[in-house]
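User: What would this chain look like folded?
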Amino acid sequence: MAPPEKIPSHQRRVPRQARSRATMGFILEAAARILREDGRAALTTNLVAERAGIGIGTLYGYFPDKEAILIALARRMIDEDTAALRAALDTDDAEPLRLLVRTLLNRHRDDSALRREVMSVHLGQGLGPEHARPVAEISALLA
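Assistant: Here's the prediction, encoded as structure tokens.
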């Protein structure tokens, strides 16, 4: 039996079942839409729950506050960036470094406003152990 997954400090629980993972995705997507459309000042847990189509109690079952949602969004972006970099390295491109840089630039350009909002909270929280791992992975990929 696999050891239980460690709960990140910004989350109340790790979703294990498909429905719970979907709910987590609804929460993060709703928060991302609010940030893109209305900015960080408009982001509230009540609005996130409403846009995600869930009750506020359900949201609080996953996240204690809106900062925790932003940290989870940052983590998801970093994980997606890492996956994109891994995919870029797995190609037969003759210039992998150029492809890596292009991949990162495109990802940042395509959602720059959202990234600015999310990453400012991520950086403001400091790079704790759960945040340092993906950064180290990206660094290793680029080495």
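The mean pLDDT is 79. If you want, I can go into more detail on any region.
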